[in-house]
Amino acid sequence: MTVTLEDISKAAEGIAGEIVRTPVVPAARLSETLGCDLHLKLENLQYTGSFKDRGACWKLLNLGAEQSHKGVIAMSAGNHAQGVAYHANRLGIPATIVMPEFAPFSKVERTRSYGARVVQTGETIDASAQAAREIGEAEDLTFVHPYDDPLIIAGQGTIGLELTRDIADADCVVVPIGGGGLISGIATAIKAFNPATEIIGVETELFPSMYQAVNDQPATSGGTTLADGIAVKSPGKLTRAIIENLVSEILLVDEGSLETAVHYLVERQKIVAEGAGAAGVAALFAHPERFQGRKVASIICGGNIDVRLLSGVLARGLIRDGRVVRLRIEIIDQPRQLAKLSEVIGAAGGNIIEVYHQRLFADVPAKRADVDVVVETRNIEHVQEIISALANAGFQSRALSTRSVDGGI
């Protein structure tokens, strides 16, 4: 069984007015940084914050009367759960969602808020999936697969149809891959209209399941990733066949590239994306030569990032860029020394955020002390200026929190 352009066109007609027709926006500042003409498809603007609304809605609209009456069951760590729960509630269909024990609290609570019965069980996604199958069989519920289902793929493929209308001349489209439903639908739609458009998939280095499957490599997926929405160990069989036929290449990205993408999307484009949603942009940072001078469309497939996690990513980004630095400064332990070094930092244009005075636990002589100072700066070069100013004033210092000053740490 496969998915056709006709299936996707039918899905587009069926879900019209039921989901958000999301915009494609030019990413001018990121384009300057990356050296390509980048455009972003904002699926984070769907009601539940991800593209999963599309496939879930279309699947539920195709249930029979008896199936709708008995209800559905789905397994998900977050976005698929919310998509199914929201549209099931809207359509009056009982929904049970099995979520793993590690699912973020915020996603669990949002899923419950859409009226679904949430069952949290399983230390892994696979264990949760098995539990969902067992509950579904016991209660005669229809299982809504997150990706390996023709109706789900057709629903996600409506993104591709919209892209062909909004940015028909893209050289390539970059799409995150978890189980493969999103890229399978998009590739089917776009290739039907413009076979020359290159479709490129993105996975994390920790979860390269589809990359390994299509390249006949042993499976190694595992670990903790910022892109938990695409942390899939078992890619789909139907989606794999489509990807092998239509996708040019699957690129892998590390955690640093994902953090950079989330950070710069917020700061430079004012777009909030979760790790999986930013994976396409992360690929541009990780493999810039692959996209130089090209017109690129990337799917921001979700924006459901925990606020505390986002705060941490943004703070780490400032440190990574040298705009917040922690300096360890050795001083003589006597009056006015702290005031003097504060004057030096201020005169050099640094803004002191925090000060930690280390007398008892630092490995320094008894009449000296270490002071750790967290300073807001303009950039890496400015950090070096402050270090030089401190040295000229008789204070030896080193950066503890940036990888780019004096070799960094």
UniProtKB/TrEMBL annotation:
Pathway recorded for this protein: Amino-acid biosynthesis; L-isoleucine biosynthesis; 2-oxobutanoate from L-threonine: step 1/1
The record's keywords, sorted A to Z, are: Amino-acid biosynthesis, Branched-chain amino acid biosynthesis, Isoleucine biosynthesis, Lyase, Pyridoxal phosphate
- Supply the EC number(s): 4.3.1.17, 4.3.1.19
The record's CDD domains line, in alphabetical order, gives: ACT_ThrD-II-like, Thr-dehyd
Which molecular function term from Gene Ontology is one that the record holds?
threonine deaminase activity
Stored Pfam families: PALP (PF00291)
Kindly list the cofactors needed: pyridoxal 5'-phosphate
Which residue range or ranges hold the ACT domain?
A: 326-407
Record field: catalytic activity = L-serine = pyruvate + NH4(+)
Q: Which family does it belong to?
A: Belongs to the serine/threonine dehydratase family.
Q: Which NCBIfam families match?
A: ilvA_1Cterm, PRK07334.1
Give the protein's biological function.
Answer: Catalyzes the anaerobic formation of alpha-ketobutyrate and ammonia from threonine in a two-step reaction. The first step involved a dehydration of threonine and a production of enamine intermediates (aminocrotonate), which tautomerizes to its imine form (iminobutyrate). Both intermediates are unstable and short-lived. The second step is the nonenzymatic hydrolysis of the enamine/imine intermediates to form 2-ketobutyrate and free ammonia. In the low water environment of the cell, the second step is accelerated by RidA.
Q: What is this protein called?
A: L-serine dehydratase
This protein's species is: Fodinicurvata halophila
